[in-house]
Amino acid sequence: MSTMANPIRQAPAAWSLPDRGKVAMAGLILAESAIFTIFVVAYLFYLGKSLSGPTPREVLDTPIFFTICLLSSSLSIHFAAKLLARDKVGLFLALWLLTFALGGLFLYGTGMEWHKLIYQDGLTISTNLFGTTYYSLVGLHAFHVTVGLLMILIVAICALAGRVGVEQSHRVEVLSMYWHFVDAVWVVVFTVVYVVGH
Amino acid sequence: MSSNTITVSGIAILEKPWTETLYEWLTTVDHKRLGILYILNALVFLVFGGIEALIIRIQLMHSDSTFVSPQVFNRMFTMHGTTMIFFVAMPILFGFANYLVPLMIGARDMAFPRLNAFSFWLSALGGLLLYFSFLGGNGLYGAGSAPDVGWWAYAPLTMRAFSPGHSSDYWTLSILASGFGSIGTSINIIATILCMRCPGMKLNRMPLLAWLNLVMAGMVLLAISPLTAAQIMLLTDRYLGGHFFDTQAGGSAVLWMHFFWIFGHPEVYVLIIPVFAFMSEIIPVFSRKPIFGYPVMVAATVSIAFVSMSVWAHHMFTVGMNSYANSFFVITTMAVGVPTGIKIFNWLGTMWGGRIQFKVPMLFSIAFLFQFLIAGLTGIMLACAPFDWQLSLSYFVVAHFHYVIVGGILFALFAAFYYWYPKMTGRMLSERMGKWHFWLFLIGFHLTFDVMHIPGLLGMPRRIYTYEPGREWDTLNLIITIGAFIQAIAILVFLANLIISYFKGDEAGNDPWDAWTLEWSVSSPPPTYNFASIPTVASRRPLWDLKHPEDPDSKYE
């Protein structure tokens, strides 16, 4: 009823198109980058403009160790994905869990930092402009880390149940794209908040 | 298409119970059904937004009017703007994109059907939230209702101190929800177009509708996100004690304006680019000529997308930026008119030397060309900052953007309705009723929006709920209101046409317009799976190649 007879002039030699999971994740990353950009712009715009309250220089300690944790987790997830593509499921799982641990450590570090800022330095989101912009920017990033860790956990559980193999490697690659994005955002946030803003 | 009957062989044809059909529609992931749901959803909100417009127009019909209170008037113009942009224009364009893109690129569905459904229902939820505010906007102070802060919701008017109750929250949350839906649909469109084209459909053989929706989807990702960010900031200010826009703590109201318009300006290009897509498909078919200058059309659209990201502060000329900033935005705003103008020349070039068929879709398209041109010209006038200093926030601006949105976008949408309704339903819309619709709407539109420029030039500000008698605005406003009611009647004719033709329209067949793109190769309406076998294409007009095997386009491309 709706078949079309095609007079094929020259059948295309090799018709291959990009993987839709990767394209979709690239689109999501583009949108999220725009959201983060606006928060970074707000942070930079309000730098030095707080009328009162603690300033970055007074209260911010540079979280070098936890940053290294997060950046290493990017490395471990990269190799984990590569290993899965080569069907080395056991090694993949080990590196995958390492990624989860490193990401969890980073979140723990953020939590510690916030605990100190709130209870020792008296800096909350409502204290001043610095507090508002700092907590929303770092908090938005931490939220994305949390979501990423949740996804990594789900994959970890599936892998522990023996259901992740080389056929799922393209999906794992999509998730690792997201994780690299989260890392890249942290590089920017770190630079803006702890380097430029200090 | 007997989608609601079950045939049991040897016995009889049973009607599927309506509950089952309803369940299927509510849980569908088929891009065609979701497209129709988007469109129907948008039409419902079109009626709501139109009623709000009529209330505004009745109130403004004469001076010193007391038809509605100022508070209600503020809610009306806020809801009218918010509804029309977020819950009519965006959904209806996503609906058409959803329906047409997979069919036009030879795919069986969108890349992520379930994400598609999720995005639609998010948008629907947004609309529901916004209108629930009439009931639920009362907060602890009993002071809320529908949002009344204008569709731009400028800070610090939206702060808790100045907007008690939950009216602003409903505005924020409804747009957040539909914003996420829009991002989901755009990701879907991009993934579909880049990853699911049929063999042979290289990017430079895609129908222009696919190209332009690809550009639009990319813009949505970059434009909606700043609004999402700004709204998170607004919620932070309202509920977490944040100070983003709190001037008493050093915050800046202008920052909201920048963030909003970084969204707001690309947003209007997001609305117009799919409309350009409709025109680029319809005008060639009814001129019996392929589109003039396909590569230039693509290049112009991409440059519009880029340049339009840099013009946003032309909405802020009167805010008090320094002259360097103002000049920059004057220049970029004028620059964006260039690729847009190029496209108009290309459509004219398509019609030139063609054999024009004045069917209803073409009537609307020709009106679009005239009206969009004039709207663009008043836009260039407003791009001159000193001119804008006089006319900002006046009815001249209101006339300008309604000229684009109604005269441009809505007319082209009507063309798209008349053109693709046969494909979606298998029936032709009545040409007779279509012509009534067209002429009534044309007269009403011009009566309203041509005249509306004049009170603007005479100094009538926008968003005022009434005006004194001695200003000589009375007669003009009366004419504008009469035009609005004529448009309302035309819309009723259109809605009647949609409904009556569904039951009594002529059978459409596969290809009632003798068109050239893949959606016309399947039945009307298409089967659920679109194509029995995925087609292979060799040119931009695969159906022309099929119908004219002695002179295929593939020979020339």
* Sheet with most strands of chain A: none
- What is the CATH superfamily classification of chain A? Cytochrome c oxidase, subunit III, four-helix bundle
The third-level CATH topology of chain B is Cytochrome C Oxidase, Chain A
Care to count the β-strands of chain B? 2
**Global mean pLDDT of chain A:** 91
Measured distance between first and last alpha carbons of chain A? 70 Å
Spans where pLDDT lies below 50 across 5 or more residues of chain B: none
Q: How many strands of chain A?
A: 0
User: How many DSSP helices of chain B?
Assistant: 15
Structural class based on helices, strands and sheet pairing of chain B = mainly alpha
> Structural class from helices and strands of chain A?
mainly alpha
Q: Specify the number of helices of chain A.
A: 6
CATH class of chain B: Mainly Alpha
**Which pair has the most extensive contact?**
A-B, 46 and 59 residues
Question: Overall 3D geometry of chain B?
Answer: globular
What is the secondary structure topology, with strand pairs?
The complex is a heterodimer of chains A (198) and B (557).
Chain A: H1 20-45, H2 56-59, H3 64-85, H4 89-120, H5 129-160, H6 169-196
Helix pairs in contact in A: 1-5, 1-6, 3-4, 3-6, 4-5, 5-6
Chain B: E1 5-7, E2 13-15, H1 18-26, H2 31-60, H3 70-105, H4 113-136, H5 167-195, H6 208-239, H7 253-287, H8 294-308, H9 323-351, H10 360-383, H11 385-391, H12 395-425, H13 431-457, H14 474-504, H15 542-547
Antiparallel strand pairs in B: 1-2
Task: Give a description of the structure.
The complex is a heterodimer of chains A (198) and B (557). With 198 residues, chain A is an all-alpha fold. Chain A has one domain: Cytochrome c oxidase, subunit III, four-helix bundle (Four Helix Bundle (Hemerythrin (Met), subunit A), Up-down Bundle). Helix content of chain A is 73%, strand content 0%. By secondary structure, chain B is mostly helical. Chain B has a single domain (5-555), classed as Cytochrome C Oxidase, Chain A (Up-down Bundle), CATH 1.20.210. In chain B, strands 1-2 form a two-stranded antiparallel ribbon. In chain B, strand 1 and strand 2 (13-15) form a beta hairpin. In chain B, helix 3 (70-105) packs parallel to helix 5, helix 6 runs antiparallel to helix 7 and helix 10 (360-383) packs parallel to helix 13. Chain B is globular, with a radius of gyration of 24 Å. The two termini of chain B are 37 Å apart. The mean pLDDT of chain B is 93. The chains are: A mainly alpha (198), B mainly alpha (557). At the A-B interface, helix 1 and helix 5 of A face helix 5, helix 6 and helix 7 of B.
